[in-house]
Amino acid sequence: MLVRAETSNQELSDKLVYVGRCAKVVKGGRRFSFAAIVVTGDGKGKVGLGLGKATEVMDAKEKAVKVARKNMVKIPLRDGRTLHHDITATFCSGNIVMRSAPAGTGIIAGGPVRALLEVLGIKDVVAKSVGTTNPHNMIKAALKALTEIKSPRFIAEKRSKKIGEIVSRRDRQQKDTQE
């Protein structure tokens, strides 16, 4: 359920996640170039990922911001602060497990995944990265997981049920696991 988000350039925050340097050896010496990964979000459920490459760091960052704002997607959030359900995703050798958390937990995640969740607007989540520490793969795995989240409204429409039936069932399951 990948939905492109309509974006206006107001209220968007950008976070530089990673800058990598690459060297090309030529006859006269080394030529350096830079790659930048940027995540952009509005803090209300829209997020985008961008990769930019250039000979200067600032140019690479600007390109990445432009790509991130172009590729923003809408993620359904529960109460505007956490995920609707637990989710697992894999991208290349990067695996990620994300779990919704009660209010006041905060963002328990490391590295590039934390930046993605912050600009998205999630306030309470537990995320565990397994496998690679490559920021490209970790962010893409996290974004893949987030785009696979289904809201109760979507599930209710698909099953031809009411939203109350779906949500009450979820609440009963959470009480059973806590006891």
From TrEMBL:
<protein>
    <recommendedName>
        <fullName>Small ribosomal subunit protein uS5</fullName>
    </recommendedName>
</protein>
<dbReference type="InterPro" id="IPR005324">
    <property type="entry name" value="Ribosomal_uS5_C"/>
</dbReference>
<dbReference type="InterPro" id="IPR000851">
    <property type="entry name" value="Ribosomal_uS5"/>
</dbReference>
<keyword id="KW-0689">Ribosomal protein</keyword>
<dbReference type="InterPro" id="IPR014721">
    <property type="entry name" value="Ribsml_uS5_D2-typ_fold_subgr"/>
</dbReference>
<comment type="subunit">
    <text>Part of the 30S ribosomal subunit. Contacts proteins S4 and S8.</text>
</comment>
<dbReference type="InterPro" id="IPR013810">
    <property type="entry name" value="Ribosomal_uS5_N"/>
</dbReference>
<dbReference type="GO" id="GO:0003735">
    <property type="term" value="F:structural constituent of ribosome"/>
</dbReference>
<dbReference type="GO" id="GO:0006412">
    <property type="term" value="P:translation"/>
</dbReference>
<dbReference type="Pfam" id="PF00333">
    <property type="entry name" value="Ribosomal_S5"/>
</dbReference>
<keyword id="KW-0694">RNA-binding</keyword>
<dbReference type="InterPro" id="IPR005712">
    <property type="entry name" value="Ribosomal_uS5_bac-type"/>
</dbReference>
<dbReference type="InterPro" id="IPR020568">
    <property type="entry name" value="Ribosomal_Su5_D2-typ_SF"/>
</dbReference>
<keyword id="KW-0687">Ribonucleoprotein</keyword>
<dbReference type="GO" id="GO:0019843">
    <property type="term" value="F:rRNA binding"/>
</dbReference>
<dbReference type="Pfam" id="PF03719">
    <property type="entry name" value="Ribosomal_S5_C"/>
</dbReference>
<comment type="function">
    <text>Located at the back of the 30S subunit body where it stabilizes the conformation of the head with respect to the body.</text>
</comment>
<dbReference type="GO" id="GO:0015935">
    <property type="term" value="C:small ribosomal subunit"/>
</dbReference>
<keyword id="KW-0699">rRNA-binding</keyword>
<comment type="similarity">
    <text>Belongs to the universal ribosomal protein uS5 family.</text>
</comment>
<dbReference type="GO" id="GO:0005737">
    <property type="term" value="C:cytoplasm"/>
</dbReference>
<comment type="function">
    <text>With S4 and S12 plays an important role in translational accuracy.</text>
</comment>
<feature type="domain" description="S5 DRBM">
    <location>
        <begin position="12"/>
        <end position="75"/>
    </location>
</feature>
